[in-house]
Give the backbone structure.
Amino acid sequence: MLTFPKDFMWGCATASYQIEGSPMADGAGDSIWHRFSHTPGTTHNGETGDIAHDHYNRYLEDIALMKDLGLRAYRMSISWPRIYPDGTGRINQPGLDFYENIIDALLEAEIVPFVTIYHWDLPGALQDRGGWANREIVDWFGQYAQTLYARFGDRVTNWITLNEPSVVSKRGHLDGTQAPGLNDYWAALRVSHNLMMAHGRAVQLYRASGGDGKIGITVNVTPQHTASDSTEDVAAAERNDAFLNRAYLDPIFKGSYPDVLPAWFGEAWPNVREGDLDDVHSPIDFLGVNYYTRQVTANKRGAGVVDAQQVKQTGDHTLMGWEVYPDGLHETLDWVRDTYGDIPLYVTESGSSFKDSFDDSGAINDNRRLEYLQSHFSAAHRAIQDGVDLRGYFVWTFIDNFEWAFGYSRPFGLVHCDFDTQKRTIKRSGHWYRDVIANNGF
Ligand code: IFM
């Protein structure tokens, strides 16, 4: 029996555009994801978040299901264009009301809300003004965050500024596989810095608001292993580590960028102004770590922007093509503590996509997903035994949803959704998770 610390926050995570549907309802503006998914050729089968699992209309049913699973916490995100249809300026009250209803229903169900302020659905109107590549976004984001603190600060005590800034930069602006779909090397590097600045601003504004809750950020950490002991491969893995992981964690915790990055990118590296890094370095209360897999990296000229190539490993992989590697979670949690200090940590996402099917009795026996969870919970437990201050674990994800460019082809949920009927069915992994929560271990 592995027992977790008392009051461990067992939860699930989701994101607004992936679950809500009705993206333009009640005065909302369009988001970059609405635009992107409606652009032919961008998503699997042209799928969009127009309906998703209709959480917009069925949130009460979903929260009842969360209560049934025994969740202690729920990580959700707020859609910026529901609050600011034009990105800045005019506030759309029905947007705030929608999230207030969700937050109140969660509290009523005794589920602690963890609110992510930005999980990728930027107002389209801001993209028209340069989006994340425009440094003015630091002010825009600050205004939006302040509005949320003012309305929900009395009830929400756990805030996450951004979800996975590296993905916003890399997928959204470098390889263009996600919204806004740009291939702009120079912009991508500026986007990274502006994201960090916006994060720092939101933290400072939260302190200034007098909020007595906690605020942090969620960073996806992918440990880098080397394909061989050669000096070249070791250097490639270090570069990739700096580019994907430390480009975000170092400025937050150390107030500096890894030296290897400006050296590598040269003139393309953004102009970091005096004082910028002090702002980014504003103290946070916790770090959210998203962990899915590791990478085994080799040096290869022209592979990505840092000459780093992934070497596929034998062994189990999920539908995303990601290696199942639970030890990487243990390693990551220990590494974060050893490198950045003993800050409270949450696993704010971890989970797996596998094909699901109903058996004759109408059940989904998703044993591979269950095993994935079990092995990763064990890895997290090992980190706790090492003294890591891990406070909670949010499974990705509550219910099958819109997996970005993969549309609905990558189910990650503990709950299955029939997208024709909107019927929800708890999978075997969900039933198992309910027992884990009830026993605070397994
Ligand atoms: O679905 C995403 C989520 O939005 C961010 N983290 C990774 C998940 C799985 O790809």
